[in-house]
């Protein structure tokens, strides 16, 4: 990468409300991710890399961001036989990512905890995807369990296995907090600023509602990266978070 394409170092100040906002880089290429980050500037400090970007050069890009003082959330939702998950997590830990997701199945979570041992990587368990509602769970064969009930059950298993945090819809955050206690993280996707399109998310709230419901970090992707002024949207969300926490 040329010097002109380098991202300026931007360490995250302790207690900075920007650190509560995780910006999802849901774009198809590293070039587009760099362009989005350049437009956001110092309004963003924490970025999520999911399937789309991860398989298009995103792992090396994650190293680049980490080297520039950014935090990186690898949203890979690992789920496989125990040995495969453990070794995959061990590789991610060496990369220097801050968060990594796995699906909240006991064998998978147990392997992930073993794989991250001795590192600062935090494992987040995905309970029920925010694009699912009760009807989707019926179709998947989980009936008569509701989304809220399944989230609570999996959160309890994650707590008992030593998982660092839970990914759940903000609408379930209060219940999850009662299950996992005050020391584990709650990370909520499905966040939509007031007036924005919900897209394919079904259990959505605004940034302020997410924080009030108990989320530690909010994941926002399309409302920022697809905006005509992504920096302005990111700054507005950070202000909303700061106002709630004030």
From TrEMBL:
Keywords: Decarboxylase, Lyase, Pyrimidine biosynthesis. GO terms for cellular component: cytosol. Pathway: Pyrimidine metabolism; UMP biosynthesis via de novo pathway; UMP from orotate: step 2/2. Residues 20-237 form the Orotidine 5'-phosphate decarboxylase domain. One of its GO terms (biological process) is 'de novo' pyrimidine nucleobase biosynthetic process. Its EC number is 4.1.1.23. Coiled coil: none annotated. Substrate binds at residues 26, 48, 75-84, 130, 192, 201, 221-222. GO terms for molecular function: orotidine-5'-phosphate decarboxylase activity. It catalyses: orotidine 5'-phosphate + H(+) = UMP + CO2. The active site is at residues 75, 77, 80. Homodimer. Belongs to the OMP decarboxylase family. Type 1 subfamily. Catalyzes the decarboxylation of orotidine 5'-monophosphate (OMP) to uridine 5'-monophosphate (UMP). This is Orotidine 5'-phosphate decarboxylase.
